[in-house]
UniProtKB/TrEMBL annotation:
Record InterPro entries: Asp/Glu/hydantoin_racemase, Hydantoin_racemase-like, Iso_Racemase_Enz_sf
Superkingdom in the source lineage: Bacteria
Official protein name in the record: Racemase
Stored Gene3D superfamilies: 3.40.50.12500
Example GO molecular function: amino-acid racemase activity
């Protein structure tokens, strides 16, 4: 049976032509034929440039931007989507959004970390926004995976280098492998390409391992987790916990009242 997933990026996708195109091609390749992934980005004008990292390196600004993720999740449920996917490594407002919705909600970072535990005993995260290091470590602990976390490695290049590499990937991939070997030497048995642009670049070039250590297709992980959760709900009636402070969904009419009160309209 067909399903429809709302993808939410931390970028303004219309600003990033090459990445936007590569992402569409990747989703078409990895999703089931009857799965439709509808891509959404942040509102135009969210950032001063096409680079989110200038803002999301700060906890306070990331928190403010996370309101777009919450609103997008509410819109996804209202519009009849089967699942909602926060497709960015920091997983902004993942727990809060999940607590408000009755459709499955997945996060890029959480899905990647959980999947890594099936492939090796220790995972490391490779990033080009080094200021996210503390957040990634905190998320690993929040997900109960601190004992499996082998740290974060700065790959030594930045966002615009990744965008430029879509037309000439070879040199950047060599730099990624060099950084990966340092983390492998420190004990990593799985490598998570942190931010989604790096992930889709590596996967488009067939980079699935470095010296026998898997390089995770983090984007595919959340796609498969979303499909699985929708299937579980449809076929077995199994869905997330509905009890407790972090789980019980508030009345939808009260959510809408408060979103309006705080000046948050539709994400569309």
């Amino acid at each position: 049976m067909a399903m429809k997933i709302w993808h939410q990026s931390f970028t303004v996708l219309s600003d990033l032509g090459a990445y936007d195109d590569a992402l569409k091609a990747h989703f078409k390749r990895v999703a089931r034929p009857d799965t439709e992934i509808v891509m959404h980005g942040m509102k135009p004008g969210t950032y001063r440039t096409n680079y989110p990292g200038i803002d999301i390196r700060y906890a306070g600004l990331q928190h403010l931007h996370a309101t777009q993720f919450i609103q997008a999740g509410l819109d996804a449920e209202r519009e009849g989507f089967d699942a909602y996917a926060i497709s960015t490594l920091p997983d902004p407002a993942l727990r809060e959004t999940r607590s408000m919705l009755r459709i499955p909600v997945v996060g890029y970072g959480e899905s990647a970390m959980l999947s890594s535990c099936l492939l090796g005993s220790k995972f490391a995260v490779m990033v080009f926004i080094s200021e996210l290091t503390d957040l990634i470590a905190a998320n690993a602990e929040k997900y109960g995976l601190a004992g499996r976390f082998a740290g974060v490695t700065d790959v030594g290049f930045r966002f615009n280098d990744v965008l430029e590499a879509f037309s000439s990937p070879g040199p950047l991939i060599d730099r990624f492998r060099e950084a990966a070997r340092k983390r492998i030497a420190a004990g990593a048995e799985v490598l998570i390409p942190g931010e989604a642009p790096l992930c889709v670049l590596l996967m488009s070039q067939g980079v699935s391992s470095v010296d026998g250590v898997p390089v995770l297709d983090s984007l595919s992980c959340w796609v498969k987790h979303a499909e699985m959760l929708v299937d579980l709900k449809r076929q077995s009636g199994v869905e997330r916990c509905q009890r407790g402070y972090f789980n019980e969904p508030p009345p939808r009419e009260r959510i809408d009242e408060l979103m309006a009160f705080y000046g948050r309209g539709s994400a569309a």
